[in-house]
Model the fold of this input.
Amino acid sequence: MKRMTFGFVLMAGLAFGLAGTAAAQDRAGLALGGFYETRIDNNVANEDLSFDYYGVRLQVRDARWFDVFVDVGLQSAEWADYKADGSGTVGLGGTFWMVRAEDLMIPLDLGLFGSVHRGDVDFKEAGVTENGTYTRILGQGVIRAAGYGMVKPFARVGVMNSKLDVSGLGPDSDWDVLNPAINVGLELEPSEQFTLTVEGNYSESVGLGIRCDFWF
Done:
């Protein structure tokens, strides 16, 4: 909880502390960056299923319509007394920007976001190991504003399918759920070559994410 509170305070401070002139997505590019996120995707038997995910992201964007990314990283998990150390997880996703409303007082980009992540999850408790896989699928609508200097506030709203396939932990239906998926955050662009993204996420409960991208 302390790290989540710190993250939201950081987002608010950066939003009010930065100024200048920002532009909507208008430059094609290739980026390499790193990310970390913590989130709670499900609740089974009154116990949260939580994840910590960190790794590297390769991202490509054109000057107007889309950006696409590939994630490679490690993901640890926790549920009740079961814990899973970091196991390899990969993801693929992106955004299709359908509308750019530049004639408004605050220019807006409207789009659709989707992603798929999959990885191993090996839960351990009292010397017992339960091996399995985890899949997370997101579909969201996106709104992003420019005009706050180097800061671009954004929000994504949609649904997430969270599926944990591990034998020995109860009925399969408890681990395959469709929940709301809400992300709210800021893209910070102090230069054309560097972007810092800080966001809060909500599905079963509140989480936090941060990402740095270096553009070429």
The first strand starts at residue 29 and ends at 44. Strands lie at 29-44, 47-61, 66-79, 82-101, 108-125, 128-145, 151-166, 176-191, 194-202, 206-215.
